[in-house]
Amino acid sequence: TTTTTTTTTTAAAAASATATAAAATTTAAAAAPAAPTLPNPRAADFWQNLYAEFLKCHRTPINAALHLVTTPLCLFAVIAPLAWLHPYGPITAAAAYVATTFVARLPLRVMVANAIFSLGIGAVAGAIGEQWSLLQLGLLFVVAYFGQDGAHWLGGEPTFQSTYQQQKDALLHLAIHTWMLLPLVVTAAARHGRIVRLILPVARVVVGRVGGSSGDSGGGDSSDIDVVHSWVKQQRPSKEITTHWWFDDVAVQQSPQLSAALQRLQQAAVVVDALQHAHPYCDVHVVEKMNEIYVAGPPGKLSSDTVFYTPHVDGPWPVAPGAAVYRCLLAISRNSVVQTLTALVTTDGKETVHTLTRGDVLGFDFNREVHYIRRDEAAAARVAAGSTDDDEQRVVLKLHFAVAPRGCGAYAKLLGAATALWDRVARWIFLATINPTTTTEKLVAAVGVLGGTTMAESVARYGDATNITYVLLLSLLSYCMQSMLPLLIGASFVHYVMYMGVFEYRDNIGFGKFKRNVIFFKAVSYLLLLYYYGVAINYNPTNISPISAALITIGYALATAATAAIGVDRTYFGVELGQCEPRWVNAFPYNIGLPHPMIIGALIGLIGVHVHVGAVVRWLVPLHCAFYIMHAVQEATDTLPRANVKSAPIKQ
To answer: Roughly what angle, to the nearest 10 degrees, separates helices 511-536 and 597-613?
Structure first.
């Protein structure tokens, strides 16, 4: 019997291996697009066939989004030298390029989009191209060109060029590919619709509930929660300090029933689905090394436990573009006393309060979201009086998931591994200072842990590490290139993009984060304007033109009065984002019949700035005004309903 079983098993294994190899071959063939045939620009189906082949290599949002940056930069680097001959040289070349595309009989919408992008790049190149050296433009082209390969690597997709480069007519393929690249990239990016959400300040907080009968949660149910709670009670955790067990601890692994319950709970579909709903273009990966059972300790004691009652950010890796690690708290015990607050994801303009009781789930970005816990003293009094069914100790599971754009599994796993390493190191520090007795331990707890936590929270609340890093990198690039252009172009207009993006896509926006980001980038933008204003007047106030002074005073006084009349929250789309109730405003300047007084005031002020700055950087203020006008048109034609975010908290 043993021999027969072994033979059968071996045969089955061989058959399985053969099938696996065949499947792998099929998968590999599917992953590498077949070599395209040489398209004929005069054919009626030229665009459709070319775009279909191109799209096979540009399906992921991250790849398409990055191409929308790298391709225009390459075009800019190519045509900018024409500005050395004449300021209208680049835009003339762009117009000539657009004219050549008429031969291809592109769809009207593609033709219009291509013309807007091409002529826009030509206009910018004409305005600033003469300030760039050949070395700078060459460096920009190289970085942008190979940045496209990096985009394909991040998206896990082959390059379009790799699909035909082995063919005899590869050079002709490359010529057609290059000729049509900009309309192809713009169309592929537009296909993803809300691709702009990748750069918006989304609310990285999700809620849900695990419970019901077996299978209701897609893995994990009430009986699994009971198993975990029963095991924790058997361990008799301390009531003086917090207690933690990693999922891979020996004590946990010695209980097969507990391990199985934890595995099902960490795979609960309600949690994974909530994360995928918040990040529709991303995949979700479990970070098992961070998962743990947590039993809360008491407040009011100076130790590392105090961190949990202090606004804080858990992780040190906020600068991870397009990706995040979520900590999802799954309540195991009944609780009405301990509340979890998210500082930058707000409700009615205030910190959102979540009271997690048995089965409730709250997830937030481990490396970015400011949060903390506090006690509801009124609820604590009810518990002391025996009028509630709260459990004696608060028990939660801390589950962790890495989220990254589809096709970027390696990126997600790298961020997950780095965050897990930090979590383990930080836990060791916390345990070493959780009950400090010596002067050194108390100093580490008070200064190292609590001081560092406060500093990190201040950065996250008022500036954000990603924003600061972005501006510092632009500053470094400007220094290396001996030109202010990278910083000017990269930092002057970010807040306008956020204004328009958030106004258009109102769902799941973190209101506090949005205000923080636009105020930060608006401040950077105006500091740059102030710098050039100082350069223009030679830092001598007596050189200020009376016209400039009058326009600046009138314009910004009008904009400031408009902000004061409606309040800061309404200024930053508090009504549209569901944070404020709409109300009619009759205060000045809304009582004089002037439409959009805040934008008009800013435009008047900018014109006053341009009186002097225009002599130094003639394109800077006009671009500011163009963005303001685009946003004014967006507001004037708005038909979208305001967001409903008041259902976000589990309990309040």
So the answer is: 30
Return the closest-CA partner of residue 105 out of 49, 59, 64, 160: 49
- Return the SS3 of 367: coil
Distance CA 400, CA 262 (A): 13
- What residue type is assigned to position 499 of the chain? Y
Residue 489: how many other CB atoms lie within 10 Å: 16
* Separation CA 77–CA 173 (nearest Å): 22
pTM: 0.70
Percent of residues in the chain assigned helix, strand, coil, to nearest 5: 60, 10, 30
Residue among 235, 210, 237, 232 at smallest CA distance from 221: 210
Cβ–Cβ < 8 Å for 133, 482: no
The residues pairing with 180 across neighbouring beta strands, listed in sequence order, are none
Q: Which two tokens stand for residue 127?
A: 């305005």
Task: Report yes or no: 114 and 98 within 8 Å, Cβ to Cβ.
Answer: yes
One-letter amino acid identity for 542?
Answer: T
Instruction: Give the pLDDT score at 446.
Output: 55
Describe the crossing of helices 61-79 and 134-155 by its angle, rounded to 10 degrees. Answer: 170
* Residue 574 and residue 580 in contact, taking contact as beta carbons nearer than 8 Å: yes
What angle (nearest 5°) sits at the alpha carbon of residue 638, between those of residues 637 and 643?
175
Provide the phi-psi class of 301: left if phi over 0, else alpha when psi is between -120 and 50, else beta: beta
CB 39 within 8 A of CB 99: no
Question: Which phi and psi angles does 353 have, rounded to 5°?
Answer: -110, 130
What number of helices (H) and strands (E) belong to the chain? 24, 10
pLDDT confidence bin for 192, thresholds 50/70/90: low
Q: What is the pLDDT of residues 606-619, one digit of tens each?
A: 999 999 999 898 88
pLDDT for 298: 64
DSSP secondary structure code for residue 343 in this structure: E
Residues 6+ apart with CB under 8 A from 373: 296, 308, 309, 338, 339, 340, 341
Tokens 């009781």: give the residue. Answer: 357
At residue 483, φ and ψ (nearest 5 deg) are -150, 140
Q: Looking at the predicted structure, is the pLDDT value of residue 651 above 70?
A: no
Residue 446 or 510, more confident = 510
607/601 Cα distance (integer angstroms): 10
Residue range 35-70, pLDDT digits in tens? 667 777 778 888 999 999 999 998 887 788 889 899
